[in-house]
Structures are given as C-alpha cells and as structure tokens.
Amino acid sequence: MSLANPFRAVFRLPSRNQRVNWFPGHMTKGMRQIQQKLRSVDCIVEIHDARIPLAGRNSQFFETITGNGVKPHILVLNKVDLIGTKQQRGILKQLRTVQPELRNILFTNCKDQRNTGVLDILPLATKLVAESSRFNRAQSAEHNIMIIGVPNVGKSSIINVLRNVHLKKRSAARVGAEAGITRAVGERIKIQEQPLVYMIDTPGILQPSVTDDEMGMKLALVGCVPDHIVGEDLIADYLLYWLNKHRRYEYVDKLGLTSGPSDNISAVLAEYAQQQAMFHRVKQYNGQVEVMTNLLAAARKFISFFRTGQLGPINLDEESSYHI
Ligand SMILES: Nc1nc2c(ncn2[C@@H]2O[C@H](COP(=O)(O)OP(=O)(O)OP(=O)(O)O)[C@@H](O)[C@H]2O)c(=O)[nH]1
Ligand SMILES: [Mg+2]
C-alpha cells in the first residue's frame, strides 16, 4: 500500500509578477540574424538541456526556421551526465509520444569529449544533408550547420568540443555558466576539413513569455534564465517542491536535515545555514547590526547541489506531457 504524499501537489507562484519573462534585446536581434542567415544553412542542430526534454523548447520559432521540417533537424539533449541511462530511455519514449515527427535525437555530454553522442553529431548531420534537397546550395561541397536553442544549454560548448575533436584546434566560441553569454549570431566556425563543415553559433532564445508557471521555474532551475531574474529563494522553493512531490529525498542527507523531509523552504534553508555556519550581518531599521543565518547563501548552495548532479540524476519533466 502506498501512502499519500504529504507534500505540495502543485506549485504556486507567490504572485503573477514573478512569472518568468526574460526576453532581452539581444534575443530579438538574434532571431532576426538567424532568419537572415537561413538561406546559407544546410542543417539545424537544436540543443536542449536533457533535464527538461520537453519544457521550454522554443518550438514555434524553431519550427519556422526548419521550414516546418523541410530543412534537416537534429535534437541534441545535452548535459546527459546529469541524468541517468534509465532516464534516457524514458525521455525517448516521452518525446516519441508528444512529438512523433522528431526522428533525429542524440544525447550528449560536453564534459566528456569521448561521449558517443557528441561524436555522432557530424556524421548524422552530413548524412541528413546528403539525403536532403539543398535547393540553392546543391552545388556547394561545404556544409553549414546552425546551432540553436534556449540559453545556457551548451550550444557554444558543443561547437568547441567538435572543433577540438575534429580539427584539434582550440575553442572558438565563448562559454559561461550564466544564461546569455552568446549575444549575437557569429561568423561561421570551421569544424571539419573533409567534408568541409562550418558551424554557426547563435544566442539562446526563449519564448517571449512563458505562461506555464512550472515550465518557467524549470527553465530557471536548470539555469536557462539568469538567477536574479527569478530569485534564488523562489528557485530553491521550486526545487524543494519538485523533490518532495517526486519522493526524491536525497536532499535530506545532503543538507544534513535532522528531522527528515520538509516542504518548508525557510526552515530547510535555516537548518542548513545554521549547520554550515552561514551567517551574515544585517543592519536593522533602528541602526543596530544583527548576525543572522544567511538564507540566500544556503539557497544558492541547495540549487548548486542540483545543478552539479549531487541530488541524483533528475529528469524534471518525468511526469509532464507538454504540448510541444
Ligand atoms: N554538466 C554539463 N555542463 C555542461 C555541458 N555542456 C555545457 N555545460 C556547461 O553549461 C554552461 C553553458 O554552456 P554554453 O556553451 O555557454 O551554453 P550556451 O547554450 O552557448 O549559452 P548561451 O550562449 O548563454 O545561450 C557552461 O557552464 C558549460 O560548461 C555538459 O554536457 N554537461
Ligand atoms: Mg553560447
């Protein structure tokens, strides 16, 4: 007999104003530049974060640029080091159900250059290009591959790994842990000599407004939106909600919580901060300085445990069925 889950069954934002709504100017410009370059592109490689295989993919825009499936398209689910092999099978099943037209799916890990998924990208792309009608580019021997996706999923990292593996050359695209590192569509970067292959890096582009609150929180949790846009306290609360809802209690040991799982984020962070001696001085309205537990530092640590895989392999979409 399974006991009912005593924790929150739904996640509610404290207010509608806290909805994820991050669409800075470089994204509008990036969309325009992507469209301008499309004529010279032979294949689109869409990179997404394997921890959210369904949530947040900017499908409407991405479908437009593949000409609704006319241009070869590969979906690469990156950061697979943060999910398990068992999850990979589940993800393929989920994707086949919600988007049966998706045929070319690879799982990659940029942190490991020997990862078979990364090495499969170029052979698959060149095969798809050879099988496609390249219209105005039929006479050209070279291949241009455009890398697209939402922010911070590893688009620039993939270009660097492939350039390194195939050409033994050092990185050419800027990479960083924050969302929004690549801010414009760059010049094409050479990846391979025979056949000649170039890749075009693009800035991460989100949906202009994410109306599904949980989807927005998942994007924030994996880092597709800068933390300060949503706030670390709210991201940590969403993480706690998700873990409890899915009975993933590894966090209890990791945070050293003596009284077991809890759905109260303030209590969880306070206990962890106390235990780790995370304190800071706070000036009160009357001018007095008080030493208090640093809940923000504790929230950041909790989030970073998730982001570095220390709470176990997690597919945040495991029970979702978004329409893509
Ligand atoms: N764990 C893990 N981290 C990765 C992997 N690939 C990239 N990263 C990290 O993810 C972060 C983002 O990588 P980028 O390559 O800058 O991502 P991007 O998609 O180009 O990001 P924007 O330019 O901001 O849109 C960096 O901290 C990378 O080190 C991976 O396979 N596994
Ligand atoms: Mg980038």
Describe this structure as you would to a colleague.
The protein has helices at 25-37, 59-65, 85-98, 116-131, 155-167, 213-222, 227-230, 232-245, 250-254, 265-275, 295-307, and strands at 43-49, 73-78, 105-107, 143-149, 189-192, 197-200, 279-283, 289-293. The protein is of the alpha/beta class. The strands form 2 sheets. Strands 3-2-1-4-6-5 form a 6-stranded mixed beta sheet, covered by helices on one side. The model has no long low-confidence stretch (mean pLDDT 92). Helix content is 37%, strand content 13%. α3 links the parallel β2 (73-78) and β3 (105-107). It has 2 domains: 24-200, 3-Layer(aba) Sandwich (Rossmann fold); 210-307, Conserved Hypothetical Protein Ylqf, Chain: A, domain 2 (Orthogonal Bundle). α8 packs across α11 and α10 crosses α11. Magnesium ion binds next to α5. GTP binds at residues 78-81, 152-157, 204. This is Mitochondrial GTPase 1. Residues 31-208 form the CP-type G domain. Belongs to the TRAFAC class YlqF/YawG GTPase family. MTG1 subfamily.
